[in-house]
Every structure is written in C-alpha cells, then in structure tokens.
C-alpha cells in the first residue's frame, strides 16, 4: 500500500506522518509526503523529534505534490484543514482521499499573560515544553493510527472497508 500524506507546506505534520509510517509500517506501507505550497525545508523541530525517536530522517524533504504525478498512490491523506479544502490535482485519480485534521505542533504559542508573570528564562522553558508536548502528541496520534492501518493491511481487508476504517481514525485524538 502506498500513502501520500499532504499538508500545505510539507514541513511538519505530513513529514512526521511519512517518516512514522515508513518506520512503523513494517514494509507493508510505503509513505511519501508533499505539499500544495511546499516550504522548501523541513521544520527543525520535526527533524529533532524524529531523531529523538531514532526514526530515519535522511530522505525527508519538503516538496510539491507535483513531484508525484507519475506515482501510483492508493491513499491520499490530508493532515491539515487548509490542504483538505484545496482542489487536489486530477492525477490523484483512483486514490482514495481521506482527511485527518491534526493541529500544527509548530504553531504553538505561549500566551503573553504567562510570559509576563514569569521570568524570561522560565517563559522560554514553558514555551519549549509546550511545543515539545505538541510534537509528542502529534507523534503519538500518528503512531497509533499507522500501527492500526498496518494491522488492517495484514488482515487483508477489502478496499472499501479499509478506506472506511482509515477515515474513522480521524476521530482518534
């Protein structure tokens, strides 16, 4: 099974999904990722998070979905709401399209109130902890979902049933 994970900028959530899927997919699932408007670089905290989990990062790049025009894809999974609302290229063809809305862990901001009440150093630590927690939460969700998909692929479910189940995973938060 081949999955294309899509996020607008292809620098955080879709990259995490690709790397985690390839790592936990056990060779049964091949993942790639792309964006409709790629940033051109992978977010540094995405790489840091994956490295901390010993998940390979060597081949991860922020790229356009046009890079995969000639690739046979079984599923296109959007992981951000903006990408889910964009017109997808016609070349996605027969690929089943699924949306998993995930919060962007790189967009976490610490409120001004909390930073006014604490020292600058303490505020920076709180901000870093919040961002790390957001990345960890996103990784945990993706690990659970992808592990479940792998189980279903091993069970050789028919395509329609598998698609329903993959879509239902969107509610796993």
Automatic annotation (TrEMBL):
InterPro entries linked: Ptyr_pPase, Ptyr_pPase_sf
Record-annotated Phosphotyrosine protein phosphatase I domain positions: 1-128
Keywords tagged on the record: Arsenical resistance
A Pfam family recorded for this sequence: LMWPc
The organism's taxonomic lineage, starting at the top: Bacteria, Pseudomonadati, Pseudomonadota, Gammaproteobacteria, SAR86 cluster
PANTHER family documented for this protein: ARSENATE REDUCTASE
Protein name (Swiss-Prot/TrEMBL): Low molecular weight phosphatase family protein
SUPFAM superfamilies reported in the protein's UniProt record: Phosphotyrosine protein phosphatases I (SSF52788)
Statement: the UniProt record of this protein carries the keyword Phosphoprotein: no
Biased composition (Acidic residues): 110-128
One of the protein's GO biological processes: response to arsenic-containing substance
């Amino acid at each position: 099974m081949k999955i294309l994970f899509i996020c607008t900028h292809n620098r955080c959530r879709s990259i995490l999904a690709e790397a985690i899927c390839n790592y936990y997919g056990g060779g049964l699932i091949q993942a790639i990722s792309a964006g409709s408007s790629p940033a051109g670089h992978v977010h540094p905290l995405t790489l840091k998070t994956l490295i901390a989990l010993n998940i390979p990062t060597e081949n991860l790049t922020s790229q356009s979905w046009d890079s995969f025009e000639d690739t046979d894809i079984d599923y296109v999974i959007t992981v951000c709401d903006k990408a889910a609302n964009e017109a997808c290229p016609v070349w996605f063809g027969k690929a089943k399209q699924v949306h998993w809305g995930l919060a962007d862990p790189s967009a976490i901001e610490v409120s001004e109130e909390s930073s006014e009440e604490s020292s600058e150093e303490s505020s920076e630590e709180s901000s870093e902890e919040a961002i790390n927690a957001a990345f960890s939460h996103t990784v945990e969700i993706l690990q659970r979902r992808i592990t479940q998909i792998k189980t279903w692929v091993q069970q050789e479910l028919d395509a329609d049933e598998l698609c329903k189940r993959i879509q239902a995973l969107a509610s796993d938060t």
